[in-house]
Write a structure and sequence with these properties.
mainly beta, four-stranded antiparallel beta sheet, 28 strands
Length: about 375
């Protein structure tokens, strides 16, 4: 497919890639501000008991999996690869994000135009925040004070005050925003606009647009290297990944991957990027030093969301058509386990390392340097 991505295709990507999502003009126009009570518990779904938030050197990491058809979030213990709880949320949950301290989980309810706020200690929804039309992706600022929500049908980003659980600003962006990613220092927010084939650069402090970066066709997800030097952008319809240099905010490489690249994640050491190819039913592994695919891992049907454990040892991939999550061991890049979850798993997020640190070395390269400790070329530098 050539040219910008049709909105119908974007909608189907959001709803597990093959399921129709209600168009923007069918949404109700009346909207309230602030929060509402948590939704009732649907029949057949279980609410877990209190879930301990990870802390200390032996802490467990929990994976939160949004399930579009079950209207719920499964909580997976990554030590045992077992579901330890199920949290009912709003209509059509599509993506999840965890606060830096692991205490709160945010879920976009694409069919309800809301964000469900889960208290990780209690394992239940404590607030529901109205946002824009068809919220698709969510990201928490590195300091944990703001939550940013990409609304694909209203072409904007809602900014939520994490303390008050209330929208405090709305940022107009490009056509059909999907992916969201912060630089590690929180100085810039990158927004992938699938309908206009570009990534917008936002200054979170004043919510101003700092620039735009043309990328491939149908950008849907973003991943930032731990040193902040590169942003990897998965382009759904052109079947490749754009590599953006954050010093110049321009594409410096394009990596051909599998069919229909959707979710993308980078290891804590910054040396490898994993891309879920939803049409090809596999995961491409990119070496960030060479910017080329070094392995392809077969997984289940329609892989979509993808996330990495804080220690970088495992990658969790949601499989929308199989109602499962595949666990890839990064040592040998092969599937080591599968976890049965609810119906239509889409987004997945994993609790961060202790104190919210994403797990990269304190002696990482300077901001804007070579990613993942790649060897620099011999000879004079420009």
């Amino acid at each position: 497919m050539s040219g910008p991505v049709p909105r119908a295709l974007v909608a189907s990507v959001l709803a597990g890639l093959l399921v129709y999502v209600q168009p923007a003009d069918a949404h109700k126009t009346a909207r309230t501000t602030g929060t509402t009570a948590a939704p009732p518990v649907p029949a057949g779904l279980s609410v877990p008991g209190p879930l301990s938030v990870p802390s200390g050197p032996g802490a467990r990491a929990l994976a939160y999996v949004a399930e579009l058809h079950s209207d719920s979030v499964s909580v997976v213990d990554t030590r045992t690869n077992r579901v330890v709880g199920t949290v009912p949320v709003g209509d059509g949950p599509d993506s999840t994000a965890v606060a830096p301290d692991g205490s709160t989980v945010y879920v976009t309810d694409s069919g309800a135009d809301t964000v469900s706020v889960i208290d990780a200690h209690r394992g239940e929804v404590v607030a529901t925040v109205p946002v824009g039309d068809e919220p698709s992706r969510v990201a928490v600022s590195p300091d944990g004070r703001r939550v940013y929500v990409a609304n694909v049908a209203s072409d904007d980003v809602s900014v939520i005050d994490a303390r008050r659980n209330r929208v405090v600003a709305t940022i107009e962006v490009g056509d059909a925003p999907l992916g969201l990613a912060f630089l590690p220092d929180g100085s810039r927010l990158y927004v992938a606009n699938a309908g206009s084939d570009e990534v917008w650069v936002i200054g979170p402090r004043r919510h101003r647009v700092l620039g735009t970066v043309p990328v491939g066709e149908g950008p849907t997800a973003l991943a930032v290297t731990p040193d902040g030097s590169r942003v990897y952008v998965s382009n759904l319809t052109s079947g490749d990944v754009s590599v953006v240099d954050t010093r110049r905010d321009e594409v410096v490489a394009t990596v051909e991957v599998g069919d229909g690249p959707a979710g993308v994640a980078v290891l804590p050491d910054g040396r490898r990027v994993y891309v879920a190819n939803t049409v090809g039913d596999d995961v491409s592994v990119i070496d960030t030093c060479r910017n080329e695919v070094t392995a392809t891992v077969p997984v289940g049907e329609e892989p979509n969301g993808i996330a990495v454990t804080p220690d970088g040892s495992r990658v969790y991939v949601t499989e929308f058509a199989d109602d499962e999550v595949s666990v890839i061991g990064t040592r040998r890049d092969r599937v080591i386990a599968t976890v049965a979850v609810g119906a239509g798993p889409t987004g997945v997020a994993i609790t961060p390392a202790e104190s919210g640190r994403p797990g990269w070395s304190a002696r990482r390269p300077p901001f804007g340097g070579e990613p993942g400790g790649c060897p620099r070329p011999v000879g004079p530098h420009p």
